[in-house]
């Protein structure tokens, strides 16, 4: 039976691949994206997306994928750091709030998938706001799972490694095998298939999990002697 889903940041990259995967399976997908003049951190936009989705088919899942890729140095401007953290964290909090409220109001189980990063555990230098926000999103995931599990609401996160997208620089592309056990970057479609599984009944006993979708990046420690 077709369901409907909401995907934030779904206009390009990983988000677009998630949307395509779900639509290919016959589901209806509502997208919230800044490219469409919408703000994933806006409670109004999120509620409207839920209403539009429900009007087509029962809303059964929500994917918090929207992110802001900006750096700020904490010793120079803590206000900028806090602002960037908030811009990454707010969409996940707002999306979770609207999704949970909708599932409860309809006495319906549901699945929330939050897109995190390997940087939540192993930050890259210079990405303090992003890494901090992703760590908070993983905490949000676990807490949501605990608070609403008995209502049939599941929440999981994926900690992504480097995923090849259009915005990736040539310098990053040249180091494809350097930090991943599989010796390559991931693809957006590989992320999308994992999201589809987490949204489906096939993962019905999985909640509160942070699943590495990272080609072994979180397990791979480079040998310092390789640089000698």
Number of E-type strands: 6
| Number of helices in the DSSP assignment | 6
Please, what is the CATH homologous superfamily? NAD(P)-binding Rossmann-like Domain
What name does CATH use for the topology? Rossmann fold
Key terms for this structure?
single chain, 228 residues, alpha/beta, Rossmann fold, 6-stranded parallel beta sheet, 6 strands, 16% strand, globular
What's the short story on this structure?
With 228 residues, this protein is α/β, with parallel strands linked by helices. It has helices at residues 13-24, 43-56, 78-105, 128-148, 170-173, 188-199, and strands at 4-8, 28-32, 59-64, 110-117, 153-160, 210-213.
Q: What features would you describe in this structure?
A:
This protein is α/β, with parallel strands linked by helices. It has a single domain, classed as NAD(P)-binding Rossmann-like Domain (Rossmann fold, 3-Layer(aba) Sandwich). Helix content is 40%, strand content 16%. It contains six helices and six strands; from the N terminus they run βαβαβαβαβααβ. The protein has helices spanning 13-24, 43-56, 78-105, 128-148, 170-173, 188-199; strands spanning 4-8, 28-32, 59-64, 110-117, 153-160, 210-213. α1 packs across α6 and α3 (78-105) packs parallel to α4 (128-148). It is globular and about 50 Å long.
Secondary-structure blueprint of this entry?
Layout: E1 4-8, H1 13-24, E2 28-32, H2 43-56, E3 59-64, H3 78-105, E4 110-117, H4 128-148, E5 153-160, H5 170-173, H6 188-199, E6 210-213
Parallel strand pairs: 1-2, 1-3, 3-4, 4-5, 5-6
Helix pairs in contact: 1-6, 2-3, 3-4
């Amino acid at each position: 039976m077709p369901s409907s889903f909401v995907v934030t940041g779904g206009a390009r990259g990983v988000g677009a691949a998630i949307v395509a995967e779900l639509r290919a399976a016959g589901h209806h997908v509502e997208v919230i994206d800044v490219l469409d003049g919408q703000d994933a951190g806006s409670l109004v936009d999120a509620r409207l997306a839920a209403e539009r989705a429900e009007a087509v088919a029962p809303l059964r899942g929500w994917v918090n994928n929207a992110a802001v890729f900006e750096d700020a140095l904490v010793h120079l401007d803590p206000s900028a750091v806090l602002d960037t953290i908030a811009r990454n964290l707010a969409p996940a909090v707002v999306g979770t709030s609207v999704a949970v409220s909708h599932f409860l109001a309809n006495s319906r189980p549901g699945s929330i998938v939050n897109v995190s990063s390997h940087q939540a555990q192993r930050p890259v230098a210079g990405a303090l706001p992003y890494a901090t926000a992703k760590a908070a999103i993983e905490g949000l995931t676990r807490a949501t799972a605990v608070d609403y599990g008995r209502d049939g609401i599941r929440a999981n996160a994926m900690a992504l490694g480097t995923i090849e997208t259009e915005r990736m620089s040539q310098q990053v592309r040249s180091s494809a095998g350097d930090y991943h056990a599989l010796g390559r970057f991931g693809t957006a479609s590989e992320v999308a298939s994992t999201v589809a599984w987490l949204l489906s009944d096939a993962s019905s006993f999985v909640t509160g999990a942070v699943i590495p979708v990272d080609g072994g990046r979180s397990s791979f420690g480079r040998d310092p002697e390789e640089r000698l």
